[in-house]
Amino acid sequence: MMYIICPRLYIVFMKKIIYSLAFLHLLTITVVIFHGLDSIVHKGWWEKPLAFICSINYSIWQYGFFSPDVGKSSELKINVHQDGDIVNEYTTLKGFKFYTSNQESLNRFYGFKHHTASDSVFQDLCARSVAARMLNIHEDAWRIDYTMRSIHYPKIKDYQPNAPVDTVEFYTTTFVLR
Amino acid sequence: MFDSLFTKLKNSFISFWNTPLLPQPLGIFRLLIAAFTIIQALIWYPDWLAFFGNDGWIQWEISRALNTTWNIHMEHIYKMFHAILGLSETQSVLTFFWLYIIFAFGLLIGWYTRVWAFFTWFCHYIIMSTIPTFVYGVDIFLHIALFYLILMPSNKAYSLDLKLGRVNALPTWGVTLSIRVLQVHICLVYLSAGYEKMLAADWWNGNVLWRSLVQPDFRQFDLTWLSNYPFIPIILSWFTMLIETGYCIGMWIPRVRVFWLLGIISLHIGIGLFLGLWLFGIIMILLSISAFGFEAYKDIKAFKKGSQQNITSEIKELVS
User: Fold this and answer.
1) Which residue of A48, A111, A136 is in closest CB contact with B135?
2) Residue pairs spanning A and B at CB distance below 8 A
3) What is the pTM of this model?
4) Exposed site from A51, A108, A166, B112, fewest CB < 10 Å?
């Protein structure tokens, strides 16, 4: 309607709105990445709208959050017990690659391990899901042991060749079918 | 004096955001991101069912429970395909894959660009909602880029829309705003990533880099010999912090920009080569090239032209 009455005024008006939205978008990114909303973002009615905006364009996202965690690692060990006392051991420390076809798919399990290491409810759900996957792969399996350990690599000055790497078990569970 | 300084600053600010720029960088941005989307999906294809199928690593009922209620999940796509076409779970997941490829191809050729950009973004949104536990940096930056492609006039260069006369290639304020938003966003990303590294002591003494290079998740080569030369991880860590934090300054200085762009490219090639995060490294390179590549290219051309003019004038002086 406004465009029909006065196209020039409409364009100026729209231009102002578009610029305002763009600045608001950049302002949001700036405030969030410099932790300006950390104390309030998860407390209040705005939590869900903010999560929704984040899922649309990731403007409510902190890119540097991962910096201190780079270099931390964990081990995932899955023992699959099959008929005839056969035990297949899968451990990420010995090169278990989750049956992925390439490096890019494998990279996704770093995030998976990171997520599972930080949330106890999530650990149970993921262990169950991974056990179901293993049971689908090994049809005669009857027991799955699922263990997670955090790995403490030595600092560069403390490194000793061939010295065992410190691991601390923080989660273990077993699924038995019989 | 303050008045003139203020006026000068105000004019520079307005000119920065408003002076119409050529749309070529946006065309390049679209081509790079659409091609990347297709390549990433094809690399993912052999493991597609293991990640997205109901019998994958994380079953649907669990990944749905991890999500917020409004998110659209692969299970919803299955229900829709099943109701309309009678497809099974596996068929639905694979149909979704090929639709994603088709949408990204539409975006690549730039035919009704914004429509395909929206559908590609929407598919990617479903991908992110279905596997929240497997998402990492590459997905987040691809999602941001696809979101921008819905809104930005990326069809004003190198597109079928342009060939068919649906749009023109004239510089507009919309192009300028789009390029500036992308540039500022990337600068903020690197500034944040760089300064947060600076807050961690282990980044200053090289331990973070050392652990990343030797731990089994990322290890590509046996680099434990680095413990004999601890200065190497320290220098590389400092280089990373400098390049990332200084990105928001270096990229705005003509000529320095070329070296900074090369620095950031080499940093991400290093991440790909030594940590195996190839796709993450590539998308970060593509974003930097999209945001600042065209200006860096103009810097190189201006530098060549300038040095050629200098040589010509020197020859003329010698002849005379």
Assistant:
1) A111
2) 172
3) 0.91
4) A166
